[in-house]
Amino acid sequence: MEVSDDSSIFSSDSFRASALVTVIETLRGFVEIYDGLNSFPEIFLPIATLLLEVSQQKHIPEALKDKFSDVSQLIKKKADETHMLRQPLQLQKQKLVPIKLLNPKFENFVKGRDYDPDRERAQRRKLQKLINCEAKGAAREPCKDNYFLYEVKQRDKASLEKERAANYRRAIAFLQEQEHAFKSGQLGKGRKRSR
Question: pTM of this prediction?
């Protein structure tokens, strides 16, 4: 027999009560199964408080209220047992390791000297340092060359400017001299002054 979702059976109080009884019995089964867990109180105590709130509702039958309170009391009892069995956390006990005592060997320290006992490794480090220094120097060389070339070009440019300015001044002086000579009549074609 198929029953539709909006049937009156699902909205009846007896159906609701039977659904609550099924839920509470299933919850009791879970409590019995998981009572050995260390995290039992953290899982089930919030459910116990919810059960107490539901059991205090007005319209719930007394038999159902008793089942709710029984399961809630069972959860609280098992949670208390689990709390009693819990041991506080402790640090792991490790064997103490004594401090290693070494007699220091003092030497006259020289800055820049490699005190590595492995001579080959020290020599390799020294050569690597020299390679890095040379690489930096080689990287600086093009910059120095560029600065030098720039300065040479600037000097050439300045000398050309000086020469050009001198030529310009000479040409202007020559032209002014010619104009003066022309106006004063020293050149034959200009107007003569009347006396």
Answer: 0.42
